Amino acid sequence: MRMIVTKLIQLVVVLLVVSFLSFMLINLLPGDPAEVIIPFGTPQARAQLRHDIGTDKPLPQQYAHWLNNVLHGNLGQDYQTHQQASTIIGQALPKSLQLLLYAEVLALLIAIPLGVFSAYRAGSVPDRIANLTVFGLLSVPDFILLFLLTYYLGVKNRVFPVIYPTNTSGASGWFKAWFLPAASLAAGQLAVYMRLLRTDMIATLQEDYITMAKSKGLTNGRILWRHALRPSSFSLLTATGLSVGALIGGAFIVEVIYSIPGMGLTLFNAISQRQYVLLQACVLVIAVGYVLINFVVDILYSVLDPRIRHARAAA
Asked: Alpha-carbon distance 307 to 167, whole Å?
């Protein structure tokens, strides 16, 4: 419990720092932010904007006013479309979450069995082929892989749609519609996951309790999946949390290329169209999400490994 309380305090501090840096995006604009946000606006409109975003007040008061609005769900208004930033993000965020979740699950579903098999058959021909394959996946950028998958599986063989559909029917339709962008994101991650799990699993299989399990006549499958996988998964769990940043970065490019109306495309449009209030809101939501995911992974890491929990409690 003490460890969780400490982590929560650290989380609050990090979130405050993240929120302040996001808040400063508009205040760091050169010149008058109101003139940059609405360059062709009337003096009355600019004065109203200064009042809305609080730039007519001292900086600490501006931040307190802005943070209070954020905590009440008000992320500001886009002064080009006259829409609330929270409304725009509320429409885009589920699309990005679907893509990230699909890619993460796909990567783990392939990486875990492949990593376990490669560790069990370490040094064999299948293990070398698997390692060569994942090294190749690591060297290919997400957007290049997306083009290759789109051409061979979409254009040439027409297995999956090459244009993001606005409507999908049933689970199979959803699976096919999201497969190409999710697979391009998952490829690099599954290579990292597989290598980490393979390395840890090889070390675990040398432990004395594994030898004892073999002497008791347990099957190889039971030893691998019941006794060796969990203590070998800590590095994998850490990498899963840390890879969120790489997945988000890759998802932005994939969303723009594939015209998926998610956070990546929203952020790209906000930058290209100088929608600074929307850009500020997108950065805040993405940064907070990244911090929260890493917090959850840190807590799970301590739960799964009692040695870490007891070491932190003793400290």
From this structure: 48
- Name the β-bridge partners of 83: 78
pLDDT at 227: 81
Q: How far apart are CA 107 and CA 185, in angstroms?
A: 9
Sign for the pseudo-dihedral over CA of 189, 194, 200, 204? positive
Amino acid (one-letter) located at 221: G
CA distance 44 to 53: 14
CA angle 89, 244, 229 (to 5 degrees): 140
pTM listed for this prediction = 0.79
* pLDDT band, very low/low/confident/very high, at 169 (cuts 50, 70, 90): low
- 134 burial (CB, 10 Å; 0-12 / 13-18 / 19+) is buried
Q: What is the dihedral of CA 228, 234, 237, 243, to 10 degrees?
A: -120
Task: Compute the distance between CA of residue 215 and CA of residue 295 in angstroms, rounded to an integer.
Answer: 40
Structure token digits, residue 272: 């290209």
What's the burial of 222, exposed, middle or buried (CB within 10 Å: 0-12/13-18/19+)? Answer: exposed
Task: Return the number of other C-beta atoms located less than 10 Å from residue 291's C-beta.
Answer: 16
Whether 208 and 125 have beta carbons less than 8 Å apart is answered as: no
Tell me the average pLDDT across 242-246. Answer: 75
- Specify the pLDDT at position 255: 87
